Amino acid sequence: MKRLPNNIKNSILCLYSNQTFSVTDYYLSKATYEQALTKAGLTNVRFLFPTVSAEGQEKLGQEFWQDLLDYPPLIMIEGVRKS
Q1: Tell me: the pLDDT tens digits for 41-53?
Q2: Domain hosting residue 67, numbered range
Q3: Contacts by 13-22 with C-beta closer than 8 Å and gap 24+?
């Protein structure tokens, strides 16, 4: 798996129930998100990435989780907006 360079889009053509549709996914850098969120008035922006519990690592091993940790399919972003 590889990360896409900043601001590159990836399109996929899908077939479902004899109909096609496309999905376009964009990779935006952390800096881009931080800039947009700051411009929207948020402060204390934090990125929360997936973690694996000790039980999960013990049960399945670090290698099993490594791609998820290296290339997370999702993240959460937290910020504070002043009233």
Answers
A1: 999 999 999 999 9
A2: 9-81
A3: none
